[in-house]
Amino acid sequence: MIAFLCKKLLRFATLLIALCVLSFWLVSYSPLDPIQAYVGADMTRVSLEQREAIAEYWGLNKPPVERFLHWGSALVQGDMGTSMIFRRPVADVIGERFMASLALMSMAWLFSGILGFVLGAIAGMKQDTWVDRLMKWYCFTLASTPTFWLGMLMVIVFAVWLGWFPVGLGVPAGVLAEQVTLADRLYHLILPALTLSILGVANVALHTRQKLVDILASDYVLFARARGEKGFLLFWRHGLRNVAIPAITIQFASFSELIGGTVLAEQVFSYPGLGQATVQAGLRSDLPLLLGIVICSALFVFIGNLVADIIYRLVDPRIRKGESA
Amino acid sequence: MTTQSGETPLLEVQDLCVSFVQYTSCLRQSTLQVINNLSVSIYPGEIVAVVGSSGSGKSLLAHAVLGILPGNASFSGVISYDGQALSPKRQAELRGREIALIPQSVNYLDPLMRVGKQVQTSVHAGNPRSRQREVFERYQLSPDVDKLFPFQLSGGMARRVLVSTALVSGARLVIADEPTPGLDDAAVAETLDYFRDLADQGCGVMLITHDIEAALKIADRIAVFYAGSTVEIAPVQDFAGEGEALRHPYTKALWRALPQNGFEPMPGSQPLPHELPAGCVFQPRCRQATSECSTERPAMRTVREGMVRCIHAT
Amino acid sequence: MNRRQKTLITTVCAALLLIGVIASALLIGDEWIATNFEIKNEPPSLAHPFGTDWLGRDMLARTVKGLSVSIGVGVIAATASAVIALILGMLAATMGKAVDNAISWLIDLLLGVPHLVALILISFTLGGGLKGVVVGIALTHWPSLARVIRAEVMQLRSAEYVLISRKLGKSRWWIASRHILPHMIPQLLVGFVLLFPHAILHEASISFLGLGLSPHQPAIGIILSESMRYLTSGMWWLAFFPGISLLMIVRAFDILGENLRKLTDPHSAHQ
Hints:
The complex is a heterotrimer of chains A (about 325), B (about 325) and C (about 270). Chain A has about 325 residues and is mainly α. Chain A has two domains: about 1-90, no CATH class; about 90-325, MetI-like fold. Chain A has helices spanning about 1-30, 35-40, 50-60, 65-75, 90-125, 130-145, 145-160, 180-215, 220-225, 230-250, 255-270, 275-285, 285-315, 315-325. In chain A, helix 5 (about 90-125) packs across helix 8 and helix 8 (about 180-215) packs antiparallel against helix 11 (about 255-270). Chain B is of the alpha/beta class. The longest helix of chain B has 16 residues, at about 185-200. The radius of gyration of chain B is 20 Å and the shape is globular. The two termini of chain B are about 20 Å apart. The two termini of chain C are about 15 Å apart. Classes of the chains: A mainly alpha (about 325), B alpha/beta (about 325), C mainly alpha (about 270). Chains A and C meet through helix 1, helix 6, helix 7, helix 11 and helix 12 of A and helix 3, helix 4, helix 8 and helix 10 of C.
C-alpha cells in the first residue's frame, strides 16, 4: 500500500512539473497582451513609459526562461504570484473561490452519486424491460446535453417563469459580503447544484447499470439463483456489495468532468466560484491566476483519482488480503 | 437399485428440448437447438450420471431443471418432480429448497462474501449459523474457514464448501455440474464420496460429467449424452467386459475407447448443434448404420433393463 | 423486425438528420438571416417556427447555420484528433516499452487537467478564434481513441498471420500497411465518429464562454451566449430551440457511432 502510494505520488510529481513547464510555455506564447489586461480598456491613456514600468513591475520584459524560473521558484515556496484582475495574491483568490465552488460541487457530487447509483441499480436489475430502456434513453440524452443550456432552461423555468429563485448572482445584490447568511448562500446554490446533479447522474448510472448487468450474468449469481435467491434479496446479498466499489470509484474519478460542468454552470448562474474566475482569467489574460487554476485543478483531479484507487484497495478483500498474504 | 417399477421417480425429464435465438448472418435471426428430446429420470437414493463430451450442452440440462436458463433460451418438454409437472412458479419455489445445484468451481461463490455467510444463506430450516457449523464440522472445515473469502480457499476446501451448500439446504435432489475436472485421482475419489454420502441419506443425485471413469465408480445408472440427446440409459453393471451388455453403438465405442478396454479410438467427431444429420444423430459414425437410420430419428425405447435410442439395439 | 434491422434503421435516420442539417445550411442564403425590425422578438409561429431575435432574424435559419458551423469545426477537430490518436496509438504499440510508457505518461498528463480548463488554456495561448478551438479540441480528445488503437494493434501484432509474415521477412511497413491498417479501419471509423459528440459539445461550451469562435462566426455557442442576455425578458425561444437542436445533433452522432460499433462488433451476435 505504501509502495503503491509512493509510486502514485512520484508519477504525479513528474506530471505536475511537466504541467507547470508546459502551461507556462503555452501562456508565454499567447498573442494576447497581459499589460492590456492589467490596465483595462483604456490603453490609449497609458504612455509608453508607463507601459514599460508595468512590464518591469510584472517582469514581462524578461525572456520567458528567466520569468519561468522566477515564477517556478516562488511557486515551490507556495507563492503563486498576484492576480492581475483581482489585484490580490493568486493563492487567496483561488482559496476563496474554491470554497464557493466546493459547496456547489460537493452538493452536486453527492446528489448525482446517490441518485445515479439508485437509477443504475434499478435499471440493471430490470435489464431489458421498459424501465431499463427509459433509464438508458434518459442517460444517453443527458450525456449529449450541453451543461450551459440546461442551466439556461433552469433559469427560464424556475427563475423567470415561476420566480422561485434569483436570476443570477451568487449573493443578493446590494448586500455586503459579511451580511450574507448561510440561508442566502444555500438559496443561490440550489439551481446550479441541481443543474450539475441532473447531468452528473448519467455517468454513474450507466456505469452502475453495466456493472450490475455483468454481475447478474456471472457464475456466482447463477449459483445464487439456483439456491432460490431472486429480486431484491439477490441484489441485497450479491449485487450491492459487488457494484458499490466500482460505483464509488467512478464517482471519485469523475472530478475532471465535475470541474468542467462547474465552470459552465457558474458562468450561467453568475456564481462567484473558481469556474467563473477561470473564464475571467482566460478572457482578460490574467496569467498568474490562469496558471494557478490549471495547477490547482490538476491537483484536485489527482486527489480524486488517488482516493478512488485507495478505496478500491481498502475495500476489495481480494487486493487487501492478497497484498498482506 | 435397478428395479424401480412402482416407485415414483424424484425427477423425470421427458423429451426436453432447449434452443437459443442468435444471429447467423448480418441481419438474420435463427434458433439453434442445443438439446433435443432428452429424457432421464432419477429415483431417491440413486446416483445417475449424465455423461457426454465437453461443450455438448450438458450444463443446460441442469439449468433447465432449475429454471435458470438465460433469457434468449426457450425450452419444451415435461419436467416433473415427485410426480408433479414443474411450472416456472413451482421451480422458483423448489430451487434451493428441494433441488440444489453443486457448481464446478469456486467462481460460483460471491467473491466479496465470507464463505460461512454464503453457506448460511442456503439454510431454509433451523438456525443457519449452527446448521452451517454442523455441516462444516462434518467435512472437517475449521471455524477459521467461515471467515475466509472464496479466493482464499484451497481447492479441497472449496469443493467441501460447495458440497456444504447443498447439504445444509436439505434438498432431496442434488445436481452436480462437472464436479471433477482437473482434479487428481485422490481428489476425484474424495469428491465422489461426498455424492455417495448424499445418496445414502436418501437424496437423488444427478452427476453431470464428461469423465466416464469417474461416473462408473459411483453411479447406479449412466445416461449417455450425444449431440444434444440421450442415446442410452444403462445400469452401471452393463459396463463390463467387451461391452456386450451395452445397447447403443456409441456407448459401446465409448467403453472400448477407455485405456483399460483396448483404447480403441472412435473415428469422426460429434456434430455441432446446427449441422445435425438427418435421421439418427450417430448414423454417420455408426458401423451398423442402414438406410433406415438416415431417414427417421429413432425414439427412446426400453431394451432389457435400460433405454436406448437405436432401432438395431437388442 | 429483429434488433439488427432496428439498429440499421436508426443509423440511417441519424445519418439523414445530419446530412439534412448540413445540406439546408448550404441552401440558406444570407437573406434568410437579414435584419428585419418589423418582426423582431416574435415568439414561435408558423412563419418562424423557432421565433425571431431582437434584430428580427429568423431563429430557425440562424440555428441551422450555427449547427453547420459547429459540425464543421467538430469534423475538422475530430479528424485532427483521430490522426494524432492513430499515430500515437500505433507508436505506443510498435516502438517498444519506452515509447509506450512515454505515451501513457502523456495521456495521464492530458487527463490530469479538466478538459474545459485545458481548452481554455490552449485557446488562450492561440488567442482564441477558430484556430484556438480546433487545436484545443484536437490536442485534448485523442487519448481514448489512442488507447483503443494501441490495444488493437498489440493484439494484431501477435496474430498468427502477422507472425508468419514477419518470419517470411516482410518489412515493418509492409506488415503495417497490408495486415494491420486494414483491420483497424472499422475501429478507427467508429472511434472517429464517437469523437464528434464530445468535440461539438466542447466547441459549443468554449464558444459560449467567449473563449472560442468570435461573434462574427455565428456558431451555436455564440447564439446561446447572446440569448443569455434576453433570458430575463422571457424570450425563452432564443435559448430553447438552438439548444435542443444542438442536443439532437450531438445525440445523432452518438447514435451513429454506437450503432456502427454494434454492427461491426462480432460479439453482439448473441444479443
